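Key result, reporting period 2: structure in, sequence out.
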C-alpha cells in the first residue's frame, strides 16, 4: 500500500515546480515501498524451495521480474502516448490555431514533451503551444501513475486476502 501511495503522490504535481517539493517526496515514498516489498518477496520465493532448486527459483524469479518490467514499459508507454496525443489534439483544437501549425505540432507527437515548436510563430502562440504540450504530458503521466497506483493497491489487497497465518502460531 506504500507503493500505491507513492504512485498517488506522483499524480498530484502540475507542470513546473521544484523537483524537491514536487517529485522527490513521491519518489522517496515509492522507493521505500519497493524496498519494503521486493526483498521479502525474493526471500519468500527462495525459502519456499529446496536447496537443490534454489538456482531454478532464482532464475524464474529474475525472469518474471524482468519480463514484467518490459511488459509494463511497453503497455504503459502506449497508454502514455495515447493519452498525450488525445489531450494534445483536444487542446490544440480548442486553441483555434491555424491548421498548418496544429499539423506541424501533431506530426511530432511521438516526441512527447520534446516537441519542437515552430520558430516562425509569435511569442504568445509559442507559449500557448508549450502549455498545451506540457499539460498533455502531465495528463499522460498522471494516467500512467493512476494505473500504477491501482495495480499496486490491488496487489496489496490480493496479498492480504491470500496470506494465511501459520496454524502453529494461532495456539
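The corresponding designed sequence is given below.
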Amino acid at each position: 500500500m506504500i507503493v500505491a501511495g507513492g504512485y498517488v503522490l506522483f499524480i498530484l504535481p502540475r507542470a513546473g515546480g521544484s523537483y524537491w517539493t514536487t517529485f522527490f517526496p513521491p519518489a522517496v515514498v515509492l522507493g521505500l515501498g519497493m524496498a519494503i516489498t521486493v526483498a521479502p518477496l525474493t526471500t519468500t520465493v527462495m525459502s519456499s524451495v529446496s536447496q537443490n532448486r534454489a538456482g531454478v527459483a532464482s532464475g524464474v524469479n529474475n525472469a518474471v521480474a524482468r519480463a514484467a518490467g518490459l511488459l509494463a514499459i511497453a503497455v504503459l508507454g502506449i497508454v502514455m502516448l495515447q493519452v498525450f496525443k488525445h489531450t494534445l489534439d483536444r487542446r490544440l483544437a480548442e486553441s483555434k490555431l491555424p491548421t498548418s501549425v496544429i499539423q506541424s505540432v501533431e506530426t511530432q507527437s511521438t516526441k512527447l514533451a520534446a516537441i519542437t515548436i515552430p520558430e516562425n510563430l509569435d511569442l504568445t502562440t509559442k507559449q500557448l503551444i508549450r502549455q498545451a504540450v506540457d499539460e498533455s504530458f502531465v495528463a499522460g503521466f498522471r494516467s500512467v501513475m493512476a494505473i500504477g497506483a491501482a495495480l499496486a493497491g490491488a496487489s496489496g489487497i490480493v496479498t492480504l486476502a491470500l496470506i494465511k497465518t501459520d496454524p502453529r502460531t494461532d495456539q
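Helices lie at 2-11, 19-22, 24-47, 54-95, 99-106, 123-162. The chain has six helices and no strands. This case is discussed further under Risks and Mitigation.
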